[in-house]
Amino acid sequence: xxKRNKEVEAEILEWIFACIGEPVPKGQFxxxxxxxxxxxxxxxxxxxxxxxxxxxxxxxxxxxxxxxRFQAAxxxxxxxxxxxxxxxxxxxxxxxxxxxxxxYSLGRITQKHPEWxxxxxxxxxxxxxxxxxxEDQLRASEGVLNLQMGYNKGASQSGHGGFGNTRHM
Length: 169
Known about the structure:
Layout: H1 6-20, H2 29-33, H3 37-46, H4 60-77, H5 87-91, H6 96-109, H7 135-140
Helix pairs in contact: 1-3, 1-6, 3-4
């Protein structure tokens, strides 16, 4: 389990509420997000209509469904499945650091959506930098012996003896 970072959590909350257009409420990171209502509202701002039904109050099961709806909408928005937190990570406070990682990733993914012109979170995403080489350029590199090929100017391990042996001088 990763360590929690309060500064990152505060940055995430500021981003979420800047997107929603509301002031950041007082309280702990996990308490503000626990019922999933804020997360569903966030997804509806990023991708309008992505979360159809939001339960503002009800049983624990109904509130957990909010988190599941957010997760489904985030996955559809482009958040990789391996970066999405589990429902229990937030609702039962099992792994809040993973929740923060997921939301930070979501903020990063918004940069790939040109229709989103709201606040950004995280570093700028890298653009594809594809390179093409001519046949002559590729052929010219075939004669080059680089260090990855194992050339090390005559040094060898001959006489070493094998693993676990001491060095004899």
